[in-house]
Amino acid sequence: MANQKNYWKSTAELDNNNAFVEDLKGREFVEKLPEDAFLGDDQVMNDSKTNRRDFLKYVGFSTAAASLAACEGPVHKSIPYVVQPEEIRPGISNFYATTIADGFDMASILVKTREGRPIKVENNTDAPASYRANARLQASILSLYDTFRLQGPAQSGSPVSWATLLGQSRQQLDNLQAEGAQVVLLTQSFASPSTQALIDRLTAKYDNIKHIAYDAVSSSHALDAFEKAYGQRALPTYDFSKAETIVSFDADLIGDWQGGGHAPGYVKTRVPVKKNGKAKMSTHFQFEANMTLSGATADKRVPMSAAQQKQVLAALYSELTNGQASGSGEQAIQDMAKVTAKYLRKAGKKAVVITGLPSVEAQRIALAINQKLGSVVIDTQHTTTIRQGSANQLTQLVDDLNSGAVQGIITAGVNPVYTLANGEQFAAGLNKAKFSLSFSMKNDETASKAQWVAATPHYLESWGDVEFKTNHFGLTQPTIRPLFDTKQFQDVLLTWLGKDTSYRDELRSYWEQNILNGKSWNKALHDGFYVGNSSSKQNQYRDAVADAVRSISAATQEGYTLNLYTKTGIGAGQQANNPWLHELPDPITRVTWDNYLTVSKSDADALGLWNETQSDGSLNGGLAKITVGSSSLTVPVLIQPGQAKGTVGLAFGYGKQSGVKSEMQIGANAYKLYNDFSSVQPVSIEAVDGTHEFACTQLQNTLMGREDIVKETTLEIFNTKDRNDYNAVPVVSKNHIETLVTSPEVDIWDQFDRSVGHHFNLSIDLNACTGCGACVVACHAENNVPVVGKREIRKSRDMHWLRIDRYYSSEDTFEGDKNTVNEISGLGESLTTFSSLEEPSANPQVTFQPIMCQHCNHAPCETVCPVAATSHGRQGQNHMAYNRCVGTRYCANNCPYKVRRFNWFLYNHNDEFDFHMNNDLGRMVLNPDVVVRSRGVMEKCSLCIQKTQKTILDAKLEGRDIADGEFQTACSSACATGAITFGDINDKTSRVAKSLESDRMYHLLESVGTKPNVQYQVKVRNTETS
Amino acid sequence: MTRFFCLNVPQVRVLLSFVLAIAFTLPTYAQEADVDKGKSLFNMNCAACHKLNKRAVGPALAGVSQKYEKEWLYSWIKNSMAMVKSGDPQAVAIYEEYNKSVMTAFPQLSNEDIDNILAYTDYTPPAPAVPAAVVTTAASGGDNTTSILLLGVLVLVLVILVVMLFLVTKTLRKIAIANGIEVEKTRPIRKPLWEVYINNSFLVFSTVIILLFSSAFFAYGYLMQVGIDQGYMPVQPIHYSHKIHSGDNEIECKYCHSSARVSKHSGIPSLNVCMNCHMNIAEYNGEEDLEKGYTKEFYTNEIKKLYKAVGWDEENQRYTGDTQPVKWVRIHNLPDFVYFNHAQHVDVAGIDCQKCHGPVEEMEIMYQHSPLTMGWCINCHRESNVDLENNEYYEKIHAELSKKYGVEKLTIAQMGGLECGKCHY
Predict the structure, then answer these.
(1) Which residue from A84, A90, A953 is facing B265, i.e. has the nearest CB?
(2) Nearest of B85, B90, B52 to residue B71 by alpha carbon
(3) Which of residues 288-327 of B touch A (CB under 8 A)?
(4) Hey, are the CB atoms on A75 and B234 less than 8 Å from each other?
(5) Co-location of A733 and A645 in the same domain
(6) Which residues pair with A351 in a beta bridge?
(7) Which pLDDT score is estimated for A877?
(8) What CA–CA distance (Å, rounded) separates A117 from A111?
(9) What is the tally of structural domains in chain A?
(10) Is residue A316 a part of any domain in this protein?
(11) Residue B215: enclosing H or E segment and its boundaries?
(12) Is residue A128 assigned to a domain?
């Protein structure tokens, strides 16, 4: 029976008499095809001299020509120097010691240059460990090759010559001086003695110029407190390697607190080394609102708001002075103060209290406690001036600019229009000024509003010096000729002073007169770091903090507080146009390319904020409108385990619009909420409709008690129990006999003989890893790892060869998780328990675990490759021949560690990926010793085989043996805390050979039997505090 | 040429007799002075800064003995600066004229040596045998043409012979027919060969198979050489002859390609390296290859190109600073995914450059000698022994490995030189 069913597209079709429908039925296309436009009219066609045959001839000819041209190999030109500089040899790297201090970070570094172009930042191991490069400084090399850099000086946006700018600016300064109008020189905190001397000379010559130092992320409160306590406006320095008890109130000592660089010293007390059978570790209490790196590493982390922290601090002070915690605080707060005080007393001189609270009182109390304890961890005599900015001066400046009291403004190294909470007012004042000049590398928010813009060089093209702390000096030297028509701030100052010497000469004579004390300038420049011997200051404590204790013990909180912080990747936002830093996942949240509001789970539920995991593993989040005073921002929400209730967190440095590629104009600008330079602000939050798509490399799940990946124990167990209790090697049953999986009997593979030559191992100490991410960026730079962008990362197509996994616990401890799993009985219970275990607890323990290719001796990837593109080397490395790979991705499928990365696209020479590999300038950062991979091949960590091969070749050329420590990978040399060590285990004296024998050593997923060449050291926590 | 010669000879003769006359009228040094000795002394001591007929770092020295007193010359050569300091007007004048460049003192030269040198600088060689060269050229040119001509004639004769034979048979056959003689058919009528072939399916089948295989073989061979530039001999912006530098003058390869000792690149020498010698060698005086157009003028002209590139003002013997880097065409191109290190091969292994680059010292124009394929690399790594003498790095590894393999000498392959990751990363 025929189907009588009618299908119709519109009701008009049901009307049989509709002529329009009939008409349409006869036509294939509703509208007439534009064939006239396509073919032209007959006249034109007939007149045309090109007939069909000609057309075919042209097609044939061009096809033939194209294929002929394709047959011809490309001709490569090779252009040698006309006069080759003595120190440059093609193919050989030169290293220059230099120093970076951009007003936020500082480090003593070695810059690796090839054929005259800097390609990598390495740590200067001759300088103290506190001046190692963090992730941002590792990435700073790419900012040198930023296409958005200013290429020359400009006036009102149009290029001018330096002669014009220098002449006219000097003229204007003279005029303003004659008028008696005030000019303000607003600079970053230089901490540069020679620059300070120049500024002093300038202000002496022009009595109308006033110098103000300004930090985008201020340490003003700490500076004020130290000034009050010790009479010097500076910051004390700390040596955490001497610490036994560390109590931190919102001070991210592993992160950017007071200039950073504290992690290497801190970690020295955190790695348990058994002496006489007993290991010691320091005890670390962390009271904080946001989950920070320090909180993640702390033995006891207490999530609480700033107001509560102040109460604890006040109670702690009373407890230590009076023997009892006074004040009206809650019992819980009193108890915390008591426990903390007990530990502080126990450690005595080796205890320290630090705080990052934006409160002069809190800072004063911390100093008072340290004074009382006689702490040797804090050094009040060797101070640092890397933060100088004063909140009051800035507030005054904005007012003066708008009232006309200040007629001229010169900015150097700062971007106040972007970084000030009242940046718009500053911009308005800038417009009113008679003279405005901005020294800037970018056409940023401030530079684009100033009358004159002086293009400055990158620090790798500059001269300079830094006083890290009293008597610790660093020299900055150029490692490449300026790429663009730029001039240093200091050189311009010299011109204004009427000098025709260069800053380099000035710097040298300053050093010879004031710092070097007869020592060689060339040696100091070669070393990049210099220890002076002038007598340190005699700072005397002279503060009384009774009023401060009273004032902060009364601290209360109403509603929510916003805690502004700096992220590991972006920091204060100087390098907002650096794709490596955006792509670096935040160590805690593992989110890339984003700025978001971190909210605790309970607050999110109360406010109606949400996160949702999509079926493809990506994360979506809701939006929240946050209001501080009169400013409000709409930001995406990320539910952060460990966030203190009643607090939310937001990072600085995002939302930059000017001088930043469109891909990197992301996130909200938190500076707009940074009123009075206080990182803690009362805030009101409301949920807003909308969905935000995150690019998250790891979701907020937990380990669910699985111990094969992260092994953890406590110091107590580590000291008292046998290795099998905390680091047992898995066993399998063979012929009903339990056999260790490491035993050759249970192995289906034959062993290679690796006893001859080198056998490389990488050892990762989970106790020493702080998650700082320097290794990830170093790996990017060394191995030409492409940047893929947010869209691709959301599809899990990130290309990081090295990732730092972060694991939360579901109970308060990982141990708790394990117990829960062990107690499961029955299928039904296991289902419910496991799903509940997925949720991290409100204050979880955190473990960081760097994971790269494990270079398995019995590698699962090698056996499945159909074309043998991945194979094993005798030296223990798993090789990857990219040109052999056909891209089946079987290897990635078979890898239990998920460390293989597939090139889904051609990332270089591709404008779809507008980061750095698509332009000539950005490609200058590529390492010529490592091939740039193409589309359709698999890639992964090679254990920096180019570096090991280089070390071997150097030894061969010099005819000598290789000492331990010579073999390095990019990650091991970037690691400031020594968490990653690399070496040859056939050299029995090497550190990796010894760590292989350590009780803490284990391999990832040992039960799989892959026999990796990467070792991990069990994480030991000093949890007896709780 | 002949005309030039005719005009020139009398002049030269006049000149020669003049020189000889002077030589005999000045017996003080001419008698015992030895031009040959003088030449070798000149080349050893003076040639770095002086030329005979051309200003270099110092003045041209031809006829210098006529310009200055002999005693003055002795003391000037032995210690010029002393004379300048003592305020000798002539000495100061020279010192000023040549930008106050200090002439090396030669206290080791005896008066006799100086006499010899002066004899050489005053000596004018007899006119070169230009006509001889012309003759040889003509002869050699003729040689070539003659051989082609001869061949042509031979071919022609052969063709004529074939035609004649054919004609003879034809005529004979005609005569035979005319005489009524039956020309016997030698063979019985059989099926033509192709028909036999077509009908034999086995033969057809095997031919097809053979054809298929052989074409596959040739196609494979053709495809495998795509991208292999063995014999690649591009035209370079400056005609640099390795034959002259490395062959005739025996300059060590690594004098110019010094990076090969320490770096992965052998390095194309920068132009200042060329100028180490070419500051003094402004013209070519070696052998010529007129057939290919490599005359002295040609080579001298190439040296001028170098001067232009490096910005050397020959007249005033100074650098102008106006440089034009030379854009050489790169001959040996390894793909980006291969890591090759010269230092490892040249310095550690001590391999001769010629092993891979061929007889460079015979190459007028540089070309790629080896295929530079992976198979070529691997073969060598399989066959060559590692030179472990006097290298502490290898001591332990060698002892252990040779025990393991039970051999005295290890090949590179046994040392792990075939692993992918050693060259691909």
Answers:
(1) A90
(2) B90
(3) 309-311, 323, 325-327
(4) yes
(5) no
(6) A245
(7) 92
(8) 10
(9) 4
(10) yes
(11) helix B201-224
(12) no
